[in-house]
Write the structure tokens for this entry.
Amino acid sequence: MRILLVQPDYFSKNLGFRLLALPEPLHLEVVAASVPDHDVCILDMRLDGNLEAALKKFWPEMVAVTALTPEVYAVQNILLQVKAFSSEIFTVVGGHHATLLPEDFFIAQVDAIAVGEAELMFEDLVRAVAYRRGLGGVCNIIWQDRNGQFVRNRLTKSHVNMDAVPLPRRDLTEAYRNEYFFLFDKPDTSVATSRGCPYRCKFCSVHEFYRGQTNQMTSERVLSEISAVSTAHITFVDDNFLMNTRRENAIADMIRSEGIKKRYSMECRTDSIARHPELVEKWVNIGLYAVLLGLEGGSDKTLKGINKSCTIDTNNRAIRILQDNGVIIWGAFIVDPEWTEDDFRQLRDYVREKQITHTQYTILTPLPGTSLYRSRYEDLLTHDYSCFDTLHVVLPTRLPRDVFYQNFADLYRQRDIGPYYDLVQAGKMTIEDCKRGKIMLDTMSDWERYIEKDPILGTKNLYNTIC
Ligand code: SF4
């Protein structure tokens, strides 16, 4: 069977973090690997928007698309285009949004919705479609019957054995490889060695998607993932890479004894770092150079409000450990719509005081499937998912909305280039990297760019569903 897997594009041309990172569609590469007996192709529409050309070239019998919440309309439009090209193509949608709010894909153009991790059903689904066996026996899917009704099949209770997950089909994204990057490393390869998270941050859907489970690859299996990577740089895209110190210690030992020379970035919680400075040092010695750190806020009040299960003291210790080891911190912060000008000022001061050079500020957004969504549903100002990109505020604000955006954009205003100069001097950034960063900061610090898509202040009707 010929299967086309599609990574949609949704980012606004005006705003976003595209200049900071563009990871490969790893989940699609893994899905492709789960059906080795079939002819699979991946279209990354963030880099190649010509769906029609791909359909004409490949003539797929099945098209599967993945969807996060802000991508919902892009995915609906992709499926509309696919069915207009040929109504014979079987269409599947999966991913976080489709799993947590499948009703948004109860539309004529969708034949099946994949619920949860693809390994639990994709192979069975492909077999059933290829051999026209009927979909009633395929677990973890919702499918459209002949009468246009969506039928929910049984959900399995089992979880994916991470060591049994096949190596990603990176050959299918080879043509795009040179475009994938993380901060200053291009080309980059993403590696996921675990799934799920034991924490319960209010804004996060990870634990909902994985039904509260956390699964990890063994250190031996992680080494085989790393050994299969051809690029000089790897980003571990686990939600919290340093979660199991015994395992990450063993991985570092194996990398050293195998003589593997690469640069690494990872995503981490601050408490893992604060508890294990020796592990950070060990990883720095084998090539760790940057950490995407979920700092979330500059006060205990903020951290408590989002149920981060962490304190400012822990965050401060983690920052110190990383900086003492020369690791670049990409600090991620969340801004609450309830904030006053004092709250904004306090965060600005905190970031300046801690000299965090690379920052990502997002607005607290009740994404479907999160506890925040359930508790604030009645307060939502819009159900237009294109506004759920964490750069627009979908809840009421305490400040007047334009003042809120002025303060939010101001967080991105670069006041002191001294720390960047130090990184260039230390050979950790190039002048080109600085220019790229400046373009992003200039864009993100222009508050009027946010207004266009605001649910209250916006002038354009951006509710571009296919309905
Ligand atoms: S934000 Fe990070 S630590 Fe919190 S629940 Fe999500 S993945 Fe876990």
Notes: Residues 72-85 form the longest helix (14 residues). The chain has two domains: 2-152, 172-451. Residues 111 and 374 are 28 Å apart (CA to CA).
